[in-house]
Design a protein that fits this description.
Strand order of the largest sheet: 1-2-3-4
Radius of gyration: 14 Å
Shape: globular
Structural class: alpha+beta
Order of helices and strands: HEEEEHH
Largest sheet: 4 strands, antiparallel
Number of strands: 4
Strand content: 25-35%
Helix content: 40-55%
Length: about 100
């Protein structure tokens, strides 16, 4: 898939940070990290210690970051177009 320049910037920011935490609480956690040229997603159960890792695509990372940013920016429910990739990029830079 061809990414827009802003999507490429989002991926570059996440890669430069080494990854991004998607969720983390007493019950579960999920994060994506950059390992070499691959993205690895880790999902775990904090209570049992069971953890699953899998390689994911750039598209998976973009989707996960988009929905995380959307949530953190106070937009819930189906994508209504209120949050743009520029918003996502700005949120990443500010956080």
């Amino acid at each position: 898939m061809n990414h827009t320049a802003i999507q490429r910037t989002v991926l570059d920011i996440v890669a430069a940070r080494g990854g991004i935490t998607l969720v983390g609480n007493r019950e579960s956690y999920a994060f994506i990290r950059r390992v070499g040229s691959s993205w690895i997603r880790t999902d775990g159960d904090s209570m049992t210690g069971v953890e699953e890792q899998r390689q994911v695509s750039d598209e998976h990372v973009l989707t996960a970051v988009f929905w995380l940013a959307r949530d953190r920016l106070g937009h819930y429910g189906p994508d209504d177009g209120a949050v743009t990739w520029d918003d996502v990029c700005a949120w990443l830079r500010d956080n």
